[in-house]
Design a protein that fits this description.
7 strands; alpha/beta; Rossmann fold
Length: 252
């Protein structure tokens, strides 16, 4: 059995990634701060015949990450794939952005990725097995809206961290890539009491060259590809945004 470990796996894109890997015969281990969401996700996987485990914790705390990875190894063995999906945003006017909010966003989005990647890579090296690390960045690493400084900074740094780790870990047969999602609709992928059916206008759809808003499955499928079918791809940032970042927009 292959093993996929996923941070931020309780809801949204992370939940879709967990379901997708479980459906492809991976044992799935999740770390998230939301116990309710984790329990729902794990229950769904188990009912579908998959194998899962989870821990409630803060990805920005080394102790929580190490406990999660140790428990995962004890139950499933060393991971084959890590998906660093955990992320938060605290958007607002730049002139009012607090140091505490800036630091917290970078702690979760960037330090959390570093801690998880380092912990998993050490175990892969010790087990002498090749592996894949996939970091979920964002098109905010490449373009911005007002008031997104902390989030954009964290995701831009994550893309740089990705290619640095790819070079450092290549000798150990560990590939490291990033995915930068654009608008991915996750309203119907929240825990049950928060989930709602999304509604999109025609303008929402047609501003994407592909003619629709993104789905969590778009990212989950790409993660599996980077894990299994991309043996000559490392250090890359795969933009999955329906073509939004390549479309020129003019003011009317």
């Amino acid at each position: 059995m292959k093993v996929a470990v996923i941070t931020g796996g309780g809801q949204g894109i992370g939940r879709a990634i967990a379901y997708h890997f479980a459906a492809h015969d991976y044992g799935v281990s999740l770390l998230d701060s939301d116990a309710e969401a984790l329990a729902e996700c794990a229950e769904h996987i188990e009912k579908a015949g998959g194998r899962s485990m989870y821990r409630v914790g803060d990805v920005a705390r080394r102790a929580d990450v190490e406990d999660w990875l140790a428990q995962t190894e004890a139950n499933f063995g060393a991971a084959d794939v890590l998906v660093n999906n955990a992320g938060i945003l605290r958007n607002g006017p730049f002139l009012d952005l607090s140091e505490e909010d800036f630091d917290r966003v970078l702690a979760v989005n960037l330090r959390g990725t570093f801690l998880s990647a380092q912990g998993v890579a050490r175990r892969m090296v010790a087990a002498k097995k090749p592996g894949a690390i996939i970091n979920i960045a964002s098109t905010r690493a490449l373009m911005s809206e007002p008031g997104t400084e902390a989030y954009s900074a964290s995701k831009g740094a994550l893309v740089a961290l990705t290619h640095a780790m790819a070079v450092s870990l290549g000798a150990h047969r560990i590939r490291v890539n990033a995915i930068s999602p654009g608008w991915i609709e996750v309203s119907d992928w929240q825990k049950a009491r928060l989930a709602r059916t999304p509604v999109h206008s025609e303008a929402d759809k047609t501003q994407h060259p592909v003619g629709r808003v993104g789905r969590p499955s778009d990212i989950a499928e790409a993660c599996l590809f980077l894990a299994e079918g991309a043996g000559f791809i490392t250090g890359q940032n795969l933009v999955i945004d329906g073509g939004m970042t390549i479309r020129m927009i003019y003011a009317e």
